[in-house]
Amino acid sequence: MEMQTLLVKPAQARNAIRFIFFVCGLGLASWAPMVPYVKLKLGIDDGILGLLMLLIGGGALFIMPFSTILLNKFGTRKVIILSGSCLAVVLPVLLIANSVPAIVIALFCFGMCMGGIEVSANAHSILIQKLFDKPILSGLHGTFSIGGLTGSLVPGLLMKAGLDAVYVMIFISILILIIMLSMYKKLYAQTDETKINNFYNQGKTSESQSKWSGWVNPNVLFLGALCFCAYLAEGSMLDWSAVFLHDEKNAPLEIAGIGYASFSISMAFMRLFGDKLIVHLNHSTIVIAGSLLAVAGLVIAVISPSYPGALCGFIILGFGASNIVPVLFSHAGELKGISSSASIPVMSTMGHSGQLLGPALLGGVAEYYGISASLLLVAFLMLLLCVSYYIKQKKAK
What we know:
Blueprint: H1 10-29, H2 35-42, H3 46-63, H4 67-74, H5 76-96, H6 100-132, H7 137-160, H8 165-183, H9 190-201, H10 218-249, H11 258-272, H12 274-281, H13 283-303, H14 307-321, H15 324-334, H16 340-369, H17 371-396
Helix pairs in contact: 1-5, 1-6, 1-7, 1-8, 3-6, 3-16, 4-5, 4-16, 5-6, 5-8, 6-9, 6-16, 7-11, 10-11, 10-14, 10-15, 10-16, 10-17, 11-14, 12-13, 13-14, 13-17, 15-16, 16-17
């Protein structure tokens, strides 16, 4: 494809989508420091708070299956900007809401915004990756992690400095809105998306596929099932790492949270270098070796007699799991006969189902057999991911 036929240069679009991924991580993580504030303001207990937290995932899962319609009708750029702008509006509402019904609506809308921006940003990234003809998704997901670390640290520091929580969230919202509006023209319009898809798919995907074609495509469903396992591993760290370290490895309560931090930092680090690794090693090696490394990390965490060894296991898990999802999304963008706007919503929905529903499943296992058994179940699923992917790749050859 001659680059002069596109209104935006690929390098510009790649830099712009980096900012979008940063915003996605920033917006999601900035909510975490505000949870105690909202809990105190509304006077709710931990049980009600836990149910409210499910609304974020519920909102994301609600919008993701319908994203194909939105992406086909308006293009990924408009969905990115609309979702990001709505996110900027919703964030302060989370702090302003003064009743449980109000926070229910706000959290559900927050989840919808996050789901919309994640699906559209990944779909847009796959278009850009095609133009570069080399991996870029791992680095973009690493930028998401940097945004997450920023969102988890900066609001807390601002509040510690004396700024009211509502004003902190307004500041984050203004920053998100500025980034969204400034990046708009640096992303590809729908006409350019059509050109790119037609060039790389010989025009086979634009007109003939149905809005729900991803949900009946066996290759997309297979990749979605693998995403379910990978996201479940991430969700298990978010929800259970601190409890595991405290209850089973006797870590002091005040440092139990370092388990998820260790996992997140190792994952972010590897994603920032993931694109170069993929070029040198190839997709298959990244997924197979990464999933085996993840299994090893989980097993080490479980069998270690003390929490320092378990922390090492979590770091190894982060190294291994870091680039699996970006590679799976890249595979979705390479499938023949279906566009990324049809495949990515399916994979995102199935993946986030693992992240949302998985920890509840693990909780049921932990209730009867202990948290160690839950983590070993995650290890088994990652091993299943490895074996299934290997068999699929062998058949493809």
